[in-house]
Every structure is written in C-alpha cells, then in structure tokens.
C-alpha cells in the first residue's frame, strides 16, 4: 500500500516537472518556440531626430542708414538721428578721443571771397578752425561745412582742423593758387583805369569845345 502511494507521488512529480522543463521555468530563458520581434522594442526607442529651432531675426532688413551727409551744412548730428529714429550711423569716435581730421574738398574764389569747403569726420566735434598760412583764422560751429575768407592775393596753404573736448585733430590742408583771382582783379583794375581815363578825356574835350564856342562868339 505504501509502495502504491509512493509511485503515485513520483508520477505526480514527473507530470508536474515535464511542462515546467518545457517552458524553461525559473531559468530566465524563453522557450524555443517563443520568438520576440525586434519591432516590438521600437516603441521604447527615441528614433526621432532632435528638432533645432530656427530663430528668424524679427528686424532683419528693417534698419536703414540715417539720412546724414558728412558734407551737408546745418544738419542734425547722426548720433542724434540714430537715437531718435533707430537708424544706423557709421562708427564715431567718442568725445574723450581726439577727432579724426576733416576732409577738405575745395578752396576756390567765387567772385567775392575765397570759399573753403570740407566734410565732417566720423568723430564727435564741437567746432572747426580754418586758418590761412600767415594770415586769417576763423572758428566755426560744428554744423558748418564752409568758410568765406577775405581775398588772398598770394599763394597760401589753407587748413581746417576739427576740435572737441579731447583736443584738435590733425590738419587737413590744401594749397590755394590765386591765379584766376589775380587775373580777374587785374582785368578789373585795367578796365576801371581805362574807363576813368576816358571820362577825363571826355571832360577835357568838352571844356575845350566850350572855350572855342565862347571865343568864336566874341569875334562875331
């Protein structure tokens, strides 16, 4: 009787062990008929490429250069236009730096005076100083771009200097040739002299004519 019970226990154990072995229970190894697809793991992988945000400039192409001409007289300084209008200016040196020299463009006779023209440098300016070699000197405002000098009847160097709180710039100079001025002056003097001589001659002739008429009247 005991042997029968023992056999039943062995049979039960074998019946239980068979399916456990077929499933490889407790080994952590999946059974041979169980195939796992690699596609199932794609849901756990971040296969998407990272998105780099593109920041487009909001004000691209909207900024413009200020309506500023360095050779124009009596205009608002470019830095003031830039602050008020948001426009662009060329690079300017500061008030505590020596200014760059102005650009002297012409020195010419206009019929009544010698006129000097220049263009402003890209610097902070408080005034300009125009000098004639061995003669005249003028100080002008920062918004001026020309100076009218008195007559220069000789060859001379004319210079312009920019000034600010830090000091003076280098000189910008041009040699003035008074040839056309002298020619006009000479022609004028000659013409005036000849006209004056003609007037004197006419006056003398009139006086003589009157005397002759008086003498003829007496003889009659």
From TrEMBL:
Keyword Membrane carried by entry: yes
Keywords (A to Z) from UniProt: ATP-binding, Membrane, Nucleotide-binding, Phosphoprotein, Signal, Transmembrane, Transmembrane helix
Epidermal growth factor receptor-like transmembrane-juxtamembrane segment domain boundaries: 187-214
Transmembrane parts of this sequence: 183-206
UniProt xrefs under Pfam families: TM_ErbB1
InterPro entries: FN3_sf, GlyGly_CTERM, TM_ErbB1
Signal peptide range in chain numbering: 1-22
Superkingdom of the organism of origin: Eukaryota
NCBIfam families recorded: GlyGly_CTERM
Name of the protein described by the UniProt record: Epidermal growth factor receptor-like transmembrane-juxtamembrane segment domain-containing protein
Species of provenance: Characodon lateralis
């Amino acid at each position: 009787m005991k042997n029968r019970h023992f056999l039943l226990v062995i049979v039960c154990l074998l019946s239980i062990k068979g399916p456990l072995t077929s499933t490889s229970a407790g080994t952590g190894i999946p059974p041979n008929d169980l195939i796992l697809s690699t596609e199932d793991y794609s849901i756990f992988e971040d296969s998407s490429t990272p998105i780099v945000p593109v920041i487009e400039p909001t004000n691209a192409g909207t900024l413009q250069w200020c309506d500023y001409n360095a050779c124009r007289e009596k205009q608002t300084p470019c830095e003031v236009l830039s602050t008020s209008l948001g426009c662009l200016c060329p690079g300017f040196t500061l008030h505590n730096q020596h200014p760059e020299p102005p650009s002297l463009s012409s020195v010419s006779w206009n019929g009544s005076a010698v006129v000097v023209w220049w263009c402003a440098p890209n610097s902070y300016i408080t005034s300009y100083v125009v000098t004639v070699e061995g003669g005249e000197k003028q100080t002008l405002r920062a918004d001026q771009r020309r100076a009218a000098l008195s007559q220069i009847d000789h060859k001379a160097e004319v210079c312009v200097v920019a000034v600010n709180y830090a000091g003076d710039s280098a000189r910008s100079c041009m040699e003035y040739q008074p040839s056309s001025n002298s020619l006009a002056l000479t022609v004028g003097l000659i013409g005036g002299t000849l006209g004056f001589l003609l007037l004197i001659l006419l006056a003398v002739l009139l006086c003589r004519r009157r005397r002759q008429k008086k003498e003829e009247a007496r003889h009659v």
